[in-house]
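Ticket #4471: structure output looks truncated?

Reporter: J.K.
Steps to reproduce: submitted the chain below (136 residues) through the standard prediction queue, then opened the result file.
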Amino acid sequence: MTSETNSNPMPWTFNLHDLSQGIQRELAEGISTRIFVGDQAMLSVVRIQPHSTGSVHSHPQEQWGVLLEGECVRIQGDEEVEMKSGDFWRTPGGVPHGIRTGAVGATVLDVFAPPRDEYRKGGSGFGSAAVAGGDE
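Returned output as attached by the reporter:
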């Protein structure tokens, strides 16, 4: 992690609430993330505004998600599950998945292994992930 993405004087410590840390990425309208890249894994702190939807997509990396705050509907394969703060999930590589919020927003901590190459830099969108039923 470079000093450009970490304002903390200790380059191996971070804070979930420090918005200056991490690689900034806008995933979709109302969904933004800050990404922290390691050698074997990657963390993504995702903030989802109320009434927002993340495209159903897939990627080869395994993904774990922890709902830190709020509420959401987790979409995985053909299932949709209402989630509350403290719930977490595992998504194997290649499985279509997405998320949406209702009247309450959410903060999710995602963990990818191995890291997603397209998330090593700022930008927008879900990267080169295959979007179910789309061309993104």
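Triage note (M.O.): checked the attachment and the full token line is present. The two ends are 28 Å apart (CA to CA).
Status: closed, working as intended.
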